[in-house]
Specification:
The structure holds two protein chains of two kinds.
Chain A lengths: L17 E4 L5 H11 L3 E6 L11 H7 L3 E4 L5 H12 L3 E4 L3 H6 L4 H7 L4 E6 L14 H8 L19 H24 L3 E6 H7 L4 H8 L18 E5 L10 E5 L3 H10 L14 H6 L1 H12 L4 H10 L3 E4 L3 H7 L1 H5 L4 E4 L5 E4 L4 E3 L17 H8 L4 H9 L6
Parallel strand pairs in A: 1-2, 1-4, 2-3, 4-5, 5-6
Antiparallel strand pairs in A: 7-8, 8-9, 10-11
Chain B lengths: L10 E4 L6 H9 L3 E6 L23 H7 L2 E5 L5 H11 L4 E4 L5 H4 L4 H7 L4 E6 L14 H7 L20 H24 L4 E5 H6 L5 H8 L15 E6 L2 E6 L4 H10 L14 H6 L1 H12 L4 H10 L5 E3 L9 H5 L3 E6 L4 E6 L3 E3 L17 H9 L3 H9 L4
Parallel strand pairs in B: 1-2, 1-4, 2-3, 4-5, 5-6
Antiparallel strand pairs in B: 7-8, 8-9, 10-11
Classes of the chains: A alpha/beta, B alpha/beta.
């Protein structure tokens, strides 16, 4: 594989920071994706065979863009030796294994800090390195179940309705990136490295929010929020099914009518149908109290509306509303995301392009960027092993022959 | 008092409403000095429940407390010229201003990026807005539910054919706060190098879209619109099952041999002993049947019995719990996740959720309980401006503080 050009972009805020990335699955790669988007040089330590499925498109393309990849056999002492040499050239070593894995390789903080005193190690294990459940095996969907999210997402009959994805992987990933940056900044100011023991479980517990205090202080049993507003009181507030679009009847409009002024604008935008003038809907208190009846009226109105048009009309009237975007609405049709160039584009090895999730915070002077596609496994061997470590081609061939490296 | 903290010395003015307040809370937990700037009547979040003992009062809002632990409070009327003048003087000594006003509002008050940057070229301004500072939706209205809808977070949750289901908590705001805090750290790295501050434009819609793992990948990867699948995870390796006393989360990604031997030992394996099930991809492709068989198997177990035995076999099962269980959770307790904080004026101790990470060199900690409305106004203005008691009284009388 040919050497890819070194990513150099001085305007990137994390340029010059090197990350040795042992993470896998989703949460860890989300954390290092964020660091890579802002210019950190992220070197993935991988193995063969890698995960099944395409590497440069879809979720994998999303997760690993802007990163480099080498394939090192950590079960071989020469593989471990290479990883340790790389750690000595790195600012951050990050993993999402359970506690014993990095220790067994001599890649834990205690070992690495002897090699490089100012190293920062962030370990994003499932439930943390300490405590009676430290050895639990987990994934995002199991952690959000333990945290209470899954149980409170229910149908009207109380049966679990599902988180359809792993929010815990995302909260864990954000927390990992934030923790890494805080520890790196502390090092920049003080010269001190440290070990961060991040629990992905605690990360997803932390985003439960004020309900945790309601439990701790008031002892209140939490009930599924449904579409009752969890912030400013509102009614109508919820999702309402709209007219089918091209035969697709899974079209919904989310609506939040909060103040009296919003209610009046909402009613006017609908053409002031008789029900909006009924006494039982006159005040916010009454609208909340008579919510079921109100919702039935709104649902009947929405059924005749195209979601996009109703959204535009109501927003013109200053009412908080948005269509419940599916993948195509979000990725292909949303004018706001397009106007802000949210989605990123990368060119693949075969010359085709693919789009990936963008960078959601725009820094005016040093914006993040999407520069290179997700690397095929071991595609950075020349750069990392050759240029960074100065391991010549013959020696690399020997390491490959003894199965310490994969080509 | 925060000597040795990771973010010691970082001075933050938090002008944001509840949609943005989690960001500076996370910075404050790591030692930043965060001043919550509130209107003289108190921040709007103080009027949002739940409240202590369900008694609504601006100094009893648990909602406000969650987002404002470790901050100080300054009341200041930014609608009055004198209030704006005081703010601008505080900006000169600050590293970061966080705001979530509607785009353009600060600029019209003479406190936009140009004015703040002129006052302090090293200042970082973080603007959090539903749709960011530009684009056709810039001035559109939204709440967390609308953002979750337009960010693609709602559509994929719930059962096929039924209404999308919303998660607990304000997750569009929370995801935004995490991305915002990360952006602040990135801007600090740039400033350490270049000396200049900058303006961060954070769109909550974009943050939400970047907080859903699979929707964009599926669409861009194979043009697939991810549907709702009930509790079946999109990867097809997880589904909720029902035990004797509640629900559990199945997972078919662990060691298959251990799982199937256990199920077979209970006489419930049906066809799962066939060799094709060893293939992880086959298990995903045939997930519905697989989970139906496993549902039959777990129904006579208690949740905890199943969980403990599964974890003993290193199978990544979990119980599907109510969040109340978190307060009793031995793992969280052992790691000191919840921290008791005294509220002397209430004569009681409140148990707070802490930070999700243990730093061995510069740990997070509780420096102070969330502030009472305007609790630190005099202290802050004495420090920053040298105001004496008379000047403070005059400002209070004029309704500025």
């Amino acid at each position: 594989m040919g050497a890819t050009p070194l990513i150099t972009n001085a305007a990137l805020p994390l340029a010059g920071i090197r990350v040795l990335d042992f993470t896998w699955v989703v949460a860890g790669p989300v954390a290092t994706r964020i660091l890579a988007d802002y210019g950190a040089e992220v070197i993935k330590i991988e193995r063969r065979p890698g995960p099944i499925g395409p590497r440069q498109t879809g979720l994998q393309g999303d997760l690993h863009r802007n990163k480099r990849s080498i394939a090192v056999n950590m079960s071989h002492p020469h593989g471990v030796a290479i990883a340790r040499r790389l750690a000595a050239l790195s600012d951050l070593v990050i993993d999402n294994f359970s506690a014993r894995v990095m220790r067994s390789w001599g890649m834990d903080f205690a070992s690495l800090s002897k090699l490089k005193p100012a190293i920062v190690c962030v370990s994003m294990s499932g439930l943390g390195h300490t405590g009676p459940r430290a050895s639990y095996v987990s994934y995002g969907p199991t952690l959000q179940a333990l945290a209470g999210f899954t149980r409170l997402m229910t149908e009207a009959d109380g049966e679990p309705a599902g988180y359809g994805y792993s929010y815990a992987d995302m909260s864990g990933g954000f927390t990992g990136a934030l923790a890494a940056l805080i520890a790196l900044r502390h090092r920049r100011r003080t010269g001190q490295g440290q070990f961060v023991d991040l629990s992905q479980f605690e990360a997803v517990v932390s985003v439960v929010g004020p309900a945790l205090l309601d439990i701790a202080v008031n002892g209140r049993e939490q009930t599924p929020p449904g579409y009752v507003s969890q912030e400013a009181p509102a009614a109508p507030h919820g999702v309402y099914r709209c007219r089918p679009r091209d035969g697709d009847d899974d079209r919904w409009l989310a609506l939040a009518v909060r103040s009296q002024a919003e209610w009046e604008r909402f009613a006017a935008a609908l053409g002031a149908p008789a029900w909006t003038a009924e006494a039982k809907f006159r005040t916010l208190y009454l609208r909340i109290h008579n919510r079921a009846e109100l919702d039935a009226h709104v649902a009947a109105w929405a059924a005749g509306q195209a979601a996009e048009a109703a959204m535009a009309d109501l927003q013109r009237a200053g009412v908080a509303t948005g269509l419940v975007a599916n993948g195509a609405d979000l990725c292909a049709r949303d004018p706001q995301l397009q106007a802000r160039n949210f989605w990123g584009t990368v060119t693949l090895a075969n010359g085709r392009t693919t789009q990936v999730t963008g960078v959601p915070m725009k820094l005016s002077a040093t914006p993040g960027s999407i520069r290179t596609p997700s690397p095929e496994i071991a595609s950075s061997n020349d750069y990392v092993l050759g240029e960074l470590l100065g391991i010549g081609r013959a020696e690399r061939e020997a390491l490959i022959a003894e199965k310490a490296l994969w080509p | 008092m925060n000597e040795g903290a990771a973010l010691a010395g970082l001075r933050v003015l938090d002008l944001s409403d509840y949609r943005g307040q989690l960001c500076a809370r996370m910075l404050a937990d790591m030692g930043a000095d965060v001043i919550k700037v509130e209107p003289p009547g108190g921040d709007g979040a103080r009027r949002i429940g739940p409240f202590v003992d369900d008694l609504p009062h601006r100094d009893r809002s648990l909602f406000f407390w969650f987002y404002n632990l470790n901050k100080r409070s300054l009341t200041l009327d930014l609608e009055k010229p004198r209030g704006r003048e005081i703010l601008l003087s505080l900006v000169r000594g600050a590293d970061l201003v966080v705001e979530s006003f509607a785009p353009g509002v600060l600029a019209r008050a003479g406190l936009g990026w140009d004015a703040l940057h002129a006052a302090n070229p090293a200042l970082i301004l973080l603007s959090i807005a539903p749709f960011g500072q530009s684009g056709p939706y810039r001035d559109w209205a939204a709440d967390d539910t609308v953002l979750a809808a337009l960010g693609g977070m709602l559509y994929v949750n719930g059962s096929p054919g039924r209404a999308p289901v919303r998660p607990l908590g304000l997750q569009a705001y929370h995801a935004s706060a995490y991305y915002a805090a990360i952006a602040v750290l990135c801007a600090l790295f740039a400033r350490d190098r270049d000396g200049a501050g900058q303006w961060i434009d954070l769109s909550m819609q974009e943050a939400t879209a970047a907080a859903v793992e699979h929707v964009a990948g599926s669409y861009f990867g194979d043009g697939r619109i991810e549907p709702r699948r009930g509790t079946l995870h999109w990867s097809r390796y997880f589904r909720v099952g029902k035990c004797r006393d509640g629900y559990i989360m199945h997972c078919t990604l662990g060691d298959w041999t251990s799982l199937v031997e256990w199920v077979a030992g209970d006489g419930k394996a049906q066809d799962l002993t066939a060799p094709e099930w060893n293939d992880v991809v086959y298990r995903a492709t045939h997930a519905e049947h697989l989970f139906d068989v496993l549902d039959e198997w777990v129904k006579d177990y208690s949740r905890d019995e199943l969980l403990e035995r599964a974890q003993t076999l290193r199978l990544p099962y979990a119980t599907v719990r109510q969040p109340e269980a978190l307060l009793e959770d031995e793992q969280l307790a052992a790691r000191g996740y919840f921290v008791d904080v005294e509220h002397p004026e209430l004569g009681r101790t409140i148990r707070y959720p802490g930070a999700p990470y243990l730093f061995n060199g510069s740990p997070w900690r509780v420096y102070r309980r969330p502030p009472l409305t305007g609790e630190h106004t005099a202290e802050i203005l004495r420090e920053a401006r040298g105001f004496d008691a008379g000047e403070l009284a005059a400002l209070a009388a004029a309704g500025i503080i």
